[in-house]
């Protein structure tokens, strides 16, 4: 996990040097979502949110978005860890709310 965090900080620094914006998110815990319990007790999402805040990262907080959805079990396919079309739609909306395009 520490190597992942180091890599994320390196990417952030490279983006800053290039005057670019760097956004990041993590996938919420599928098992919690399938039980409509996403994401208050998702320890990885909570840890990553704290890491993002303390390192000034542009976090797209999917755990917050998924946690507010009333039928969380419909956001992932039962068979694997992939999003359903609905899960993709919520993710796309969260990304588009966070990213503001500006013309150069």
Describe the structure.
The chain is mainly α and 104 residues long. The protein starts with a helix and ends in a 6-residue tail after the last helix. Helices cover 52% and strands 4% of the residues. It has five helices and two strands; from the N terminus they run αβααβαα. The chain has helices at 2-17, 30-34, 43-54, 62-68, 85-98; strands spanning 23-24, 58-59. It has a two-stranded parallel sheet. The mean pLDDT is 92.
Structure keywords:
two-stranded parallel ribbon; globular; 104 residues; mainly alpha
For the CA atoms, what is the radius of gyration?
15 Å
Unreliable sequence segments: none
The number of distinct β-strands equals: 2
Mean pLDDT: 92
Shape type: globular
**Number of distinct helices:** 5
Distance between the termini: 37 Å
Residues in helices, as a percent range:
40-55%
H/E element order: HEHHEHH
Taken as a percent bin, the fraction of beta residues is under 5%
State the strand order across the main sheet.
1-2
How does the major sheet shape up? 2 strands, parallel
Broad structural category? mainly alpha
Q: Topology, pairings included?
A:
Layout: H1 2-17, E1 23-24, H2 30-34, H3 43-54, E2 58-59, H4 62-68, H5 85-98
Parallel strand pairs: 1-2
Task: Quickly describe the structure.
This protein is mainly alpha-helical and 104 residues long. It is built from five helices and two strands, in the order H-E-H-H-E-H-H. Helices cover 52% and strands 4% of the residues.
């Amino acid at each position: 996990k520490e190597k992942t965090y180091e890599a994320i900080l390196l990417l952030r620094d490279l983006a800053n040097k290039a005057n670019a914006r760097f956004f990041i998110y993590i996938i919420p815990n599928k098992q919690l979502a399938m039980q409509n319990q996403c994401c208050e007790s998702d320890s990885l999402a909570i840890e990553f949110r704290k890491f993002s805040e303390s390192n000034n990262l542009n976090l797209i907080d999917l755990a917050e978005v998924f946690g507010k959805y009333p039928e969380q079990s419909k956001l992932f396919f039962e068979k694997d860890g992939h999003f359903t079309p609905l899960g993709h739609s919520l993710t796309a909306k969260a990304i588009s709310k966070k990213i503001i395009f500006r013309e150069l």
